Amino acid sequence: MPKRYRLNCLAIFSIATLSMFAPVHAQETPLDAVRLETLDLSKMKALAPPMGYPARAAASVAGKPLTIKGQVYARGVGTHSGSRLVVDLGGEAEKFSALAGVDDAAMPLPNPLPGSAVPRGLQNHPGIASFEVWVDGKQAVESGPVRRGAEPKAISADLRGAKRMTLIVTDGGRWPYNNPADLADAMIVMKPGARSKPAALAIPDEARPPIASGTPPPPAIHGPRVIGASPGRPFLYRIPATGEGPLRFAARNLPAGLTLDPSTGFITGSMQAAGTTEVQLEVSGPRGSDRRAVKIVAAPQKLALTPPLGWNSWNVWARAIDAEKVRQAADWMVKSGLAAHGFQFINIDDAWMGERDANGQIRPNEKFPDMKALADYVHARGLKLGIYSSPGPKTCQQLEGSYQHEEQDALTYAKWGIDFLKYDLCSYGAMIKGKDNREEEKKPFAIMGAALAKAPRDLVYSVCQYGRAGVQEWAPEVGGHLWRTTGDIRDSWESISRIGFSQDGLEKWAGPGHWNDPDMLVLGKVGWGVELHQSRLTYSEQMTHVSLWSLLAAPLLLGCDLSQLDSFTVGLLTNDEVLDVSQDPLGKQAARRVQDGLLEVWAKPMSDGTIAAGLFNRGIEEATVVVKWSALGTSGKQPVRDLWRRKDLGEFQDAFSAGVPSHGVVLVRIGKPTRTR
Hints:
CATH topology of the largest domain: TIM Barrel
Strand order of the largest sheet: 34-33-32-31-30-27-26-37
Radius of gyration: 28 Å
Largest sheet: 8 strands, parallel
Structural class: alpha+beta
Number of domains: 4
Distance between the termini: 93 Å
CATH superfamily of the largest domain: Aldolase class I
Shape: globular
CATH class of the largest domain: Alpha Beta
Oligomer: single chain
């Protein structure tokens, strides 16, 4: 048999074999067009580690034929959500086009941690990706979420005169588990007679931003300048202080009923009467001393007068949480130094509960053999313990909720020594009649709020209702100290930016004891009960995350393994100038003051008369962000201090500008203090 005939037979057999499974789409390549798969795909890079399967030419990242909704494509590129390709066009391209979709071949689900399971939301997840085309730093195409099993979306971009094109595949702000994403029949049409061809460019690794880190050895007191609690109920406050030890603590003018342990800095007891007292705190050590005035407010349910700082178990352990992990979190909150900067809550999320006994009393499961002893362990470190439930019959994990047992559960929590309740809508959502029915939405949270008010212990009340039915307008009425304004967060730029920058307009509902909650911080090692991984946010994105949440006066609740905190994360969370923005006693939430395309400025007034402002760049290339004093309600020459670098930048007349990296921020404090805090 002639060689050419044998090869043709082989080709016919291969096509026939593929056709047994699905029709093959093989689009002709137009004249002057360059197929995307012919570029150097080794330069297609994961947006942030540890993501990263190599992109493939004419195959999915799983190594199978490119297949979208049963259609096999002979040409194109297989990649995954969370990837980026930069292409040098040389100014000679005319158009980019592709069919964008999620490949039919799903990647394996991540391995659950011992004692956990793949989260229910991921088990049946259809796979989602979103496709973006940026031309010379400006977004030209955004496909929106594309699901597995859906028809691909035809995308195209005008490249005339463009020097550079960037293709980005994201998770759409959903589960960031590297969904296989295809750019089928992707091509770049060049000018007739173009002298150059498009070329993939190497994407350099992100440099670590120059932020100040470390704690000076002289003693210093940190944390909030106002603390609230109910008279007649247990009081616990650990004075947040750093410095070379051993440290000794003192306090003048403590309210009647409170005492200070001078060796630990723990203030305990029970206030005897209502009122506001200014207390002078002092810490001293071998390198000197520091003093701070703190107001202690004694009034019923006067809690969370600054946004809560702490940790929650869900984003790291999910159902794998147990009492030992909670103890370790409390230990590492102290060892890491976070407690010395004001972090105090250790919160257990879903999956702690067992069955109710014959009297209807909730019992913890076998992983939490003694909840009272666990609370005592956390309190012995000067920290507070939180717990989780649902107003429905079942929690999100289909465990026992508090429905028709609200007062009983509130009394049980108080007996155990619980200090914080996250109350998650979950199964009660199906019991609500009508869409956006405010009274129906309020009802279950009001019942638990009343039960907590009658319990003999203060519990900070977190209304987890995902922003439904204008929750910010009524959550304080039902006793809520903080309330979720969004769905669940994930460790991707799409998630944190969509959530964080959507909070504008909610600022009028925030204030001391009442906080909008855009969900937890996704820093450090997270995993949601499956394989732990370092946050997929870049350095700049992490700085944006902490800066924006601090400006928003949002709760700062970590959701990572505290025993594996990296130095960069610790540096982000122990910068007291940034934490002062979060914990400012005036309690104002920032609002968007400037928006110029993808460049934004958010600012909040501070209690000393200065202004905290974040200059944000949501684009993919470094850009200069400008803020005029008139946009902030000030004028003239104003001093500016960079809070992340802890550096005075000088005085600026009428405006300030700074170069801001992609997805990054410059966080500053503007003006001279005009009053004491």
